[in-house]
Amino acid sequence: MARPAGTAVRLSPPAWLTAGLKPAPAPIPWAAALRAAVALAAPLAVGLAAGQPAYGALVSMGALSGVIGDTADAYRMRVFNIAVPQLFGAVGVTLGTLVFGHGWLAVAALTLVALVSGMISSIGAVASVSGLLLLLNAVVGAGLPMPDPWWKAPLLLTLGGLFVLVLTLLGWPLRRTAPERAAVAATYRAVADLYEATGTSSYDEKRHAVTASLNQAYDLVLARRARQHGRAPVLVRLLAQLNVVIPLAEAAPAAHLRAQLYGPLDATIPVTVRQLADAVEERRKPGGHGSGAPVLELPTAVRPAEKAVDHALRHAAAVVHEADPDPHNVDDRLGRPAALRVRARRATRSVLLSGASWRYGLRLALCIGLAQALVSLIAVPRSYWVALTVTFVLKPDFGSVFSRAVLRAFGTALGLLLAALVLAEVPRGWWDVPVMCALAALIPVFSAKGYAFQTAAITPVILLLSDTLNQQGFGLILPRLYDSLIGCGIALIAGYLLWPESWHTRIGDRLADAVADTAAYVTCAFRGNGDEQGARVRARRKLYRDLSTVRSEFQRALTEPPPTGPRAAAWWPLVVAVERIVDATTAARIRVDHGAPGPDPDEVTAVERELRELADGLRESDTLVEVRTDLVGDENGVLEPLRQEVRAARAIAGPDLR
């Protein structure tokens, strides 16, 4: 059909291409900005004062790695996040320095380092940053002349990382457990927001916030408790206060159903939960100022959901204000982390035997090998930037490879504009110190906004440090742009298009696993007895954590080009439907625990069968096809809301995207 005359043609890029260019809303991390400014500018000043600006630049480069890696909250985790990657970075720059100027030997060495880097990156967050620094510093060492003897460069880079660590730990004596306490209090406040949202359309969004907050709090508290083994009273207390949030979170789905049927909950409930959050954060104990176990004035509970909320809230208040929780009666609901040697053995076995680990290592090795071979055959000024770009882009645990390549090119262009102004207008020497102070402070601020903005902030810092080492001045600008575009092209072709798993991702497999786990949860919820409550709690927490991971993977897939992006968009309603099934299961279990009649075992079996059939269907097809289901049962029974959610999930249809 012809377009009506006078109708304007709207040309705009697709959403999957521009999603990462929108700055994420985030508060300004003032402390991190100040720390970054001091960490990168002070070494430059010391180097200039000592007449060795190159040494100061190398220390600042090490500090830059520490600033980028300082992403944790708890102090003990920050020590690992900064110190461990620095050791790998020292090894990397040593290897790079040893093969500097050796042509094809350098190509082979960096390709092997890339393989190792990619494989260890699959272990976890700290290992991922460690693998990143191992490869980055090896590339820098092989591409830039370093001071003699060979040990100076790794020593100076490590000093920079240790300087960041020292700055980070300055607040440890005064704020030893403050991050953990703040995380537990934030979880209470997230639950309060959830109860305020019961019966409204914003309930799902608030539940996601509760899941994320619980994950964060448990990760922080249990990470420290793995070493303390229950001997620290402060951590025992925090873990006890965190555990009693679980019954409140479990009662929320039942409260949401009750609010939909009978109206909103009494406003005193979220207010009381926020008061508990304040008590946690202010460390109130019986006998202290402004403390003492409160007498809760809650509305009379009549219905099962109301009784569940009332019981959970009173229990939480008792534990929050308890003087000294029994360390032997504090259950690690998610399980205490295994000993370090056990985790190291498991990680090693996983890396060596995992197909995904080998595939990512080989992809990264192929791209780095091609980058280094290219710059060995073609004269590219300061060619290390090509491999650096490949390394930053080809990090699947950091997001979509395709979108990162686009964002890297965009961010580099912005960063080069800023760097051009600095290199053209600011004279080299002591002026570098205030300029570096300002540029470094932007790194934590822009990093919170998104990858493109982080790249724009880091690019001028690296160029300024490179110019201190090489004295190339404004001539660095255009070569860096060309190098970045070449690196992005290599990552897109050799690291993305040549690997069908990148652009034909079977995201349905991950969702199918979550649906199968949901079926197992339904069985666990209604076929166990009271003694299995702990198992139900752990199963539910694990399931919500897994669903949070699935949601993150789908959100990442939405930024991929067709066919992956449109397929993820078509499947997204099913992700939401599965989350609602878990909520409905929990609500039914809570109602049964507080007086509602239990379901017939045949009804439970029917629901489980439908979910397992759905999981099997997701594994067998890349398309969503509507499936009618005859899931019948007592319309007035406790499982009716759950059956409605299962029917809705089975009835979701989507276009054929093969």
Features:
658 residues; mainly alpha; disordered C terminus
What does this 3D model show about the protein?
The structure is a single chain. α8 runs parallel beside α11, α16 packs across α20 and α22 runs parallel beside α24. This protein has 26 helices and no strands. It is mainly α and 658 residues long. The two termini are 27 Å apart.
Mean pLDDT: 79
Largest sheet: none
Kindly state the number of beta strands: 0
**Shape, principal axes of CA atoms:** globular
Over all CA atoms, what is the radius of gyration? 28 Å
Q: Separation of termini?
A: 27 Å
> Which structural class matches the secondary elements?
mainly alpha
User: What level of helicity do the residues show?
Assistant: over 70%
Given the structure, what is the number of helices? 26
Low-confidence stretches: 225-230, 286-291, 654-658
- Percent of residues in beta strands: under 5%
Spell out the helices and strands N to C. Answer: HHHHHHHHHHHHHHHHHHHHHHHHHH
In short:
The chain is built from 26 helices and no strands. The protein is an all-alpha fold. α5 packs antiparallel against α6 (125-143), α6 (125-143) runs antiparallel to α16 and α16 (384-393) crosses α20 (477-497).
Layout of strands and helices, then pairs:
Elements: H1 15-18, H2 30-49, H3 53-69, H4 75-98, H5 104-120, H6 125-143, H7 152-168, H8 178-196, H9 203-228, H10 233-243, H11 245-262, H12 268-281, H13 304-320, H14 340-353, H15 355-377, H16 384-393, H17 401-425, H18 432-447, H19 451-470, H20 477-497, H21 500-503, H22 507-527, H23 533-557, H24 564-593, H25 601-620, H26 640-650
Helix pairs in contact: 2-3, 2-7, 2-18, 3-4, 3-7, 3-19, 4-6, 4-7, 5-6, 5-15, 6-16, 8-9, 8-11, 8-12, 9-10, 9-23, 11-13, 11-24, 12-13, 15-16, 15-20, 16-20, 17-19, 17-20, 18-19, 22-23, 22-24, 22-25, 23-24, 24-26, 25-26
